[in-house]
Amino acid sequence: MAKKTRYTVLGAGNGGKAMxxxxxxxxFPVVLYNRTPEHIDAIKTRGGIDLTGCEEGPSGFGKxxxxxSDMAExxxxxxxxxxxxPATAHADVARAASSHLRDGQVVVLxxxxxxxxxxxxxxxxxxxCEVDVTVAEAETLIYAARSEGPAQARIFRIKDAVxxxxxxxxxxxxxxxxxxxxxxRFIDGKNVLKTSLNNMGAIFHPTLTLLNAGRIESTGGxxxxxxxxxxxxxxxxxxxxxxERVTVAASLxxxxxxxxxxxxxxxxxxxxxxxxAIHNQTGYRGIKAPATLNHRYITEDVPMSxxxxxxxxxxxxxxVRCIDSIIRLACIIHRTDYWRRGRTLERLGxxxxxVGEITRYVMEGDR
Length: 367
Prior knowledge:
N-(1-d-carboxylethyl)-l-norvaline Dehydrogenase, domain 2
């Protein structure tokens, strides 16, 4: 019998707990890591996680091989390292893992947001990590999941198909082969620029939150985010933002999906314009707005998604005035500089590269 792939899941939030439990229930040896010991005490005491709600796979008690806050211990025997933390923590994870990774391991960011794999690899280089690891990123988290207690998780849905790409893209087939027994729904995402620039959360999340700032603060988020929050005027801003993202992708030779195409692909929702298509997506009904503006839709999606898209546009001569305005609004509201805190091209290791050079790098690894 072939040896089961050994997984380490870094992060014990909504997605990390669901992934660790699901993998364990599928029969894979799983290690769960979280940097804060108190956050995983209950899981460590019980030896696993109760998983419910998974209609497309096993539910029950997922027994874990190890639960730890020691990075060296977490990575020691892993074949695949699944990073399931906010994108704002990717660089910190890379630094913490750099001295403990070993040749042949696969690291997958779930998801990468915009430029996740580029940043992760660049940080490993800065840390003089010379082992031969493969870093990949998923376009989105494969689960719709929530934590339902200190050692409990619920999976509402497993997405039908999630594009994934390695850096460089020549390694993507090997990563997909490695993951196939557990995740046959991962598909070839072509390259990490394409998975990054098809990041639809970058378009929907921060703009809807910021343009509904007054309503969020006055109601505590007590309204339907995508139904009440997407008025015709708000939808027009989303359309311009989306066009800028697609144009940035085109400047790099990438055919990115439009927001309308994504709604049709993901939810079979159509309409004459983005406003109508969003309102025709019945799955959005009942989803409440964030209760506060101190939410990942701004704190993560602005610096880790919008900033790198805007930076790419500026480097390759694409007007990104609408994206820039959303970033500036976020900076004003949160009294911070998301440009400075975000994924600049310098932090991604691609500052000053021509289109040909960046394409060669993501496809073949050469610079």
